[in-house]
Amino acid sequence: MQLSLDGIAQQAGSQACLYPMSLEPMAGAVTVLLGATQAGKTSLMRVMAGLDRPSAGRVLVDGTDVTGMPVRERNVSMVYQQFINYPSMRVFDNIASPMRLRRQASRDDIAARVRSLAARLHIDHLLDRYPAELSGGQQQRVALARALAKGAPLMLLDEPLVNLDYKLREELREELTHLFAQGDATVVYATTEPAEALLLGGYTAVLDAGELLQYGPTPEVFHYPDSLRVARAFSDPPMNLVEGTLQGGWVTLSDDIAVPVPEAGRHAGPVTVGVRAAALRLDGVPGSVPVPGRVALAELSGSDTFVHADTPVGNLVAQFAGVFDLRLGAPLTLHLDPAQLYVFDDSGRRLSAPRRPGGLAANVPHAGAAAGG
């Protein structure tokens, strides 16, 4: 099924929820809507589902205008952040309900499908219970299983794992990736977490304050953000951003620190240099630029150490694999590899990006936002 949003916008009184945009999620694949809270993800999903009519533009399904068609007449399933289940039905019957309504499967086939989905979502031991007997996370998984059981050609998931604990969230992300790959539904999945977008793969649409900033294959959007706004949205931990001046292929970051960036072309003037936390190193590589500093904070996250360092170019956050014992105030030197730097002009447009091994060039053209207005 091909869903197309043609110049849609959404207004709530004087408040713009969605600015004019056009988007065609890849049919039969996963498209992630990535953005912070209030970015417009839920508003966009409600328009896709038919729960809300856009203030402008059209919603097309396989070329047919369905803008005014009510949601009950569309074959779509949606899972919200807050679970919705039938309180008078057991878990088994909640999951089975969409298949029974369609009357296109035998009782044995329905039972097999219910048990298979329940096992993959870790709720197979709860099939005889009622929703009121379940925890919030368990109820959310029931709602998710029911949406998957419906087998709709369009599946919309609005941060469906947000209420689950970290370990279960990690397990279910992997299961969902397999389930989506086995089906032929067009899946749109909203999240605030860049790591979740990378794990789900497929395609990513980055939204910010109601604007569609960029859409494309997830690795391409991550590695080649069109703008500073996209780079900020698609980095966790946040990308280090340092103000500098570009002249003659060099960016001056402080009185004593300058970095070569020949990929930025002939541009000259104020720029913002970005470097991801994992690209900063304690040991230098040929051509890297040393940046002296002191430890302001060191924190462990799983098997990684995140170090906040005060340096002449500002506070930098570095991510190191392994556990490091670094005392506060201790001197350290971080190394900037010029090949790992992003450069944005004073309007926020990307001038250059790191080259991916075997991938696109560092100054790859912008992927484009597919956004109007």
Automatic annotation (TrEMBL):
<feature type="compositionally biased region" description="Low complexity">
    <location>
        <begin position="359"/>
        <end position="373"/>
    </location>
</feature>
<keyword id="KW-1003">Cell membrane</keyword>
<dbReference type="InterPro" id="IPR008995">
    <property type="entry name" value="Mo/tungstate-bd_C_term_dom"/>
</dbReference>
<dbReference type="InterPro" id="IPR027417">
    <property type="entry name" value="P-loop_NTPase"/>
</dbReference>
<dbReference type="Pfam" id="PF08402">
    <property type="entry name" value="TOBE_2"/>
</dbReference>
<feature type="region of interest" description="Disordered">
    <location>
        <begin position="354"/>
        <end position="373"/>
    </location>
</feature>
<keyword id="KW-0067">ATP-binding</keyword>
<keyword id="KW-0472">Membrane</keyword>
<dbReference type="InterPro" id="IPR012340">
    <property type="entry name" value="NA-bd_OB-fold"/>
</dbReference>
<dbReference type="InterPro" id="IPR015853">
    <property type="entry name" value="ABC_transpr_FbpC"/>
</dbReference>
<dbReference type="InterPro" id="IPR003439">
    <property type="entry name" value="ABC_transporter-like_ATP-bd"/>
</dbReference>
<dbReference type="Pfam" id="PF00005">
    <property type="entry name" value="ABC_tran"/>
</dbReference>
<dbReference type="InterPro" id="IPR003593">
    <property type="entry name" value="AAA+_ATPase"/>
</dbReference>
<keyword id="KW-0997">Cell inner membrane</keyword>
<dbReference type="InterPro" id="IPR047641">
    <property type="entry name" value="ABC_transpr_MalK/UgpC-like"/>
</dbReference>
<protein>
    <submittedName>
        <fullName>Sn-glycerol-3-phosphate import ATP-binding protein UgpC</fullName>
    </submittedName>
</protein>
<keyword id="KW-1278">Translocase</keyword>
<dbReference type="GO" id="GO:0005524">
    <property type="term" value="F:ATP binding"/>
</dbReference>
<dbReference type="InterPro" id="IPR013611">
    <property type="entry name" value="Transp-assoc_OB_typ2"/>
</dbReference>
<keyword id="KW-0813">Transport</keyword>
<dbReference type="InterPro" id="IPR017871">
    <property type="entry name" value="ABC_transporter-like_CS"/>
</dbReference>
<keyword id="KW-0547">Nucleotide-binding</keyword>
<feature type="domain" description="ABC transporter">
    <location>
        <begin position="3"/>
        <end position="234"/>
    </location>
</feature>
